[in-house]
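Bug report (template v2)

What were you trying to do?
Predict the complex of my protein with guanosine-5'-triphosphate.

What happened?
Run completed; filing so the output is reviewed.

Input:
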Amino acid sequence: MSSSGESSADFLAAGRKLFSRPCRFERVAADVDGLPPAGPPEIAFVGRSNVGKSSLVNALTGRRTLARASHTPGRTQQLAFFDLGGVLRLVDTPGYGFAAIAKDQAAAARALTREYLCRRGPLIRVFLLVDGRHGLKDSDEEMMAMLDEAAASYAIVLTKRDEVKEAEAAARRQGVLSRARAHRAAYPEVFFASARTGEGIADLRGHVAEALSGRIGAERRALGARPEKARPD
Ligand SMILES: Nc1nc2c(ncn2[C@@H]2O[C@H](COP(=O)(O)OP(=O)(O)OP(=O)(O)O)[C@@H](O)[C@H]2O)c(=O)[nH]1
Ligand SMILES: [Mg+2]
């Protein structure tokens, strides 16, 4: 039972309902000027290249090809905005940690993601995706430190659950959870999901519904997030 009185079953049902709304691609932003004006609350998906961000957006929305998933790591180099029934925006971000991307292109994508995560007023929740087969890498720890600093409340999602054996999955989740506890903006629960089989997807939808219910935004304010900077005309 949460402090707001709703049980997790309520949030699961709310999540199912939320993600049954129509979802459509809105726009991509290659730089800060390309960001859409602030609108509904936003949930962002961050993580290393190839971890499964775009696939997870597709799985959550039940749309196979909404976000562009790829066999080529580093394909997504812009922020992609998706509108969910006018009540929520899902934001797919460029992956980090892939050496084959040109250095200046990777630096530009990293700077844009950072600017977005640190300044975006409507952002209520970040999902930090980590490959469930490998666990946290140094680049993930760097992202966690950055999210702490930005006071951007985030939950870690281990991906590709279908490729990890039961015992290994339990140990990995526990290991990641104990490291997450050292980070002040990290949610004290680690999800494990598969975009391929759908395992864990209902829980993630429920978590989004819970974030949308208002508690998480309050957390972000309590953590001292800086207000979104007015952009010069
Ligand atoms: N087995 C398995 N493969 C997955 C899963 N999710 C994604 N993949 C595969 O992982 C690869 C990368 O998936 P994407 O969704 O494109 O990853 P991404 O994080 O968006 O990658 P970038 O945009 O390059 O940063 C693709 O080949 C997917 O089919 C999963 O749950 N299980
Ligand atoms: Mg992608």
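What did the reviewer find?
Residues 216-233 have pLDDT under 50 and may be disordered. The first helix runs from residue 8 to 18.
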